Amino acid sequence: MTLDFLGNLERTHKCGELRVEQAGQDVVLMGWVNRRRDHGNLIFLDVRDRTGITQVVLDKEISGEAHAKAEAARSEYVVAVKGTVRKRDEGLSNPNMATGDIEVVARELLLLNESKTPPFSPAEDAIGNEEVRLKYRYLDLRRPQMQHNFELRHKVARAIRNYLSDDGFLEIETPFMTRSTPEGARDYLVPSRVHAGSFYALPQSPQIFKQILMISGFDRYFQIARCFRDEDLRADRQPEFTQIDLEMTFPSQEKIFRVVEGFLTAAFKAAGISLTTPFVQMTYDDAILKYGIDKPDMRLPAMVSLTDELTPELREALKIEAALPVLGFVIPDAGGLSGTQKRGMVEEIRATFGDCGLDFLDVARLKTNETFAPLAATIEAKTAVGAADLLIVISPKLGTPAKWNYDAQWIYKRVGALRLQLGQKFADKHGRFAKTGTENDFKFLWVTDFPMYEWDEEAKVWNAAHHPFTSPHEEDIKAGRLTNDKGAVRALAYDIVLNGTELGSGSIRIHRQDVQAEIFRSLGMSDAEAKERFGFFLDALEYGTPPHGGIALGLDRIVMILAGATSLREVIAFPKTAKAIDLMVDAPTPVSDQQMKELHLRTVVRN
Fold this sequence. Notes:
Elements: E1 26-39, E2 42-49, E3 52-59, H1 64-72, E4 78-87, E5 102-113, H2 130-135, H3 137-140, H4 144-166, E6 170-171, E7 189-191, E8 199-201, H5 207-215, E9 220-228, E10 240-249, H6 253-270, E11 280-283, H7 284-291, E12 304-305, H8 312-318, E13 327-331, H9 339-353, E14 358-360, H10 363-367, H11 373-383, E15 390-396, H12 403-406, H13 410-425, E16 444-448, E17 453-456, E18 461-464, H14 474-478, H15 481-484, E19 493-498, E20 501-508, H16 513-522, H17 527-541, E21 548-554, H18 555-562, H19 593-598
Parallel strand pairs: 3-5, 6-9, 11-16
Antiparallel strand pairs: 1-2, 1-4, 2-3, 4-5, 7-8, 9-10, 10-21, 12-13, 13-15, 14-15, 16-19, 17-18, 19-20, 20-21
Helix pairs in contact: 4-6, 4-18, 7-13, 16-17
């Protein structure tokens, strides 16, 4: 086959732009053959580009040469079409296409490039084998859904950038190659050729640099920043990701909230969704008590404490541990289960909890017992369960294990996990819950006052729950809790949560060197170790550091939710697999002995 040259031919329109108003106009379209239909003297090519599809008619009587070329064309061939827009005949419009009322009658067809038979067609709505999609990502990205996702990502990022720029923030880049400060996830390390045995680290976040920018007097900084973490992957986690990073001097917590709500409102507006602000706020402790998790999905009703309703006499009769919490929750419109289904669900609940001292309280059975019927009525009233709803009550059995004594919130967390599990079980295919509105039902929440420290039971040490640059509440410092009662210290830390997904975390930072040094010591870090790891930062704090704070939100997660996707891989152009492999370029790969020698490295194989 002889391919054509484009020459001086210029594209006049894109494939998704033409409408009836252009009927009679001469146009030039360029794109890929999405589908080809051969009807003898008439051949129809659906020509596709990023904007959409136009049906092109190759009529042998109008142009035998163009018709002959169309006979050779196949899916994914690159073509140029010169012809006239024509309104389709009555009854032949395609309501499923934006251009469905017109077609282009071709006078010339150029075959600009051919294509091998692809392993899947970009015209397909869904491709089952994700590994094939990732290997041939350039084909996968041609699919209309993927192109929509990345146009959406562009619009969201632009809206955020414009909002923050208009609000006085400066966009400043921070280094990709910095020093390793091990904490949280593992760093990706970059060996230095010039400094043998030394390594740079790729940033897990720009945390220290953005604080130094505040020390430098820039007042308001933001960056749509690339970050890197060497951690195990899942659907909402990738080794390289993008976050909306910002920092402000002299902020109140509420001021940071208003800024974030502002750019999120702009971002969602770019996706055609209106938000109501300010968002709901809730402390960490209240989130655990009401939802059993620090990132509540508020589309489902909260848990209800039934502890006071269970008197000592009732607890003894029902064999429920004295004084421990009894919790109930409702799953809307999930109550229409048969007896067999209910029994199966009870067994599923018991299997979920395992041998941990928690059990299922059958309220329906209580109603049939004269002694317990008033209790059942009280439970139903307090949980506001409807006739069509599913009511679950979880109670601690006698002999509940000692873990309760170690973590006073343990039961709330376990019951909260079950609430989410059953909520997802009865959600529809879009992840929507009954009685909660439409697909665009977004429930935002600020969670505040996180614990400053978390206890590592295995290592028997206290670790920073957020990061060691987070400021504690001033009253907790004054009360001496940093040394006497770490478990009671509250951080000036906050998360922004959407429909059970944590979008981002932030905090008011420590701006005093003496407080920062004390926090390092409270984490078991000697002054010498702190100097070794963070000396430059501790030095900077001694040169007039202003109070400051900020936050970082995951751009990938925001776009994933707006796109209705279930994986970050749907909104990252060239993602990695769950084993951190790029199937398209086949990375990572070994490097040559010469490269290893230049970097002063050698490979050691361990058994």
